[in-house]
């Protein structure tokens, strides 16, 4: 009876005292009829619904202090395999434990091995520039956004890679930098697409052949971006927003904007 939650034991006793049959009570509480009888016998004989089993089961091998050491090891080395985690933990213990014990204790504190989430690679320099860009425009109103024309290229992979990297993490660490796998664009088995969009309208979608050069990008600006700007913003005042890809910052392209 010790493995039955105290709340459920109370439900069983309450149902029987209310006149519900043993069979119906067993069905309602999702237990066997024998369990219902044992709970009710303990109630009649000893007047209790709680279990008298205290601290039953084998004593845990790791103390709370050991668990804190383990979680610190994992938080510093998310991509370390469990045998290495076990070896590092055992350095701090008087009695070594197995890898199975380490996995069990990590699961108990809600840290599980999960496939690392793939995300675009953002360097520290890029992150700093992006943050600065956001700070400069944090006070923009909707009218400011209406005068921005966004454009970008993107590579769509036909045959994505299937490689997986497992990391130890808690649910809230899903997007922690150490728990993600940086991913960069690649061209094999893929197609590149350029598109533009503004508040007022969608722009053209172009499928680009092969490697795109600064000359190709300037042609896109001349044949597609310029007519779109003239149509949507005849009075001017438009902000053309692209990223710092090499073809966007080439001298040939900068000269066209000038």
How are the elements arranged and paired?
Elements lengths: L5 H12 L4 H8 L3 H14 L17 H13 L5 H9 L8 H10 L3 E4 L1 E4 L3 H13 L5 H4 L2 E10 L8 E4 L10 E4 L6 E9 L3 E7 L5 H19 L6 E3 L4 H4 L1 H7 L1
Parallel strand pairs: 2-5, 3-8
Antiparallel strand pairs: 1-4, 3-6, 6-7
Tell me what you see in this structure.
- By secondary structure, the protein is of the alpha/beta class.
- It folds into three domains: 6-46; 64-109; 119-165 and 179-257, Nucleotidyltransferase, domain 5, CATH 3.30.420.
- The chain is 44% helix and 17% strand.
- It has helices at 6-17, 22-29, 33-46, 64-76, 82-90, 99-108, 124-136, 142-145, 214-232, 246-249, 251-257, and strands at residues 112-115, 117-120, 148-157, 166-169, 180-183, 190-198, 202-208, 239-241.
- Strands 7-6-3-8 form a four-stranded mixed β-sheet, covered by helices on one side.
- Helix 1 (6-17) packs antiparallel against helix 2 (22-29) and helix 1 packs across helix 3 (33-46).
- 10% of the residues are buried.
Main sheet, how many strands, which sense, barrel?
4 strands, mixed
Helix content: 40-55%
Arrangement of strands in the largest sheet: 7-6-3-8
**Quick one: CATH superfamily of the largest domain?**
Ribonuclease H-like superfamily/Ribonuclease H
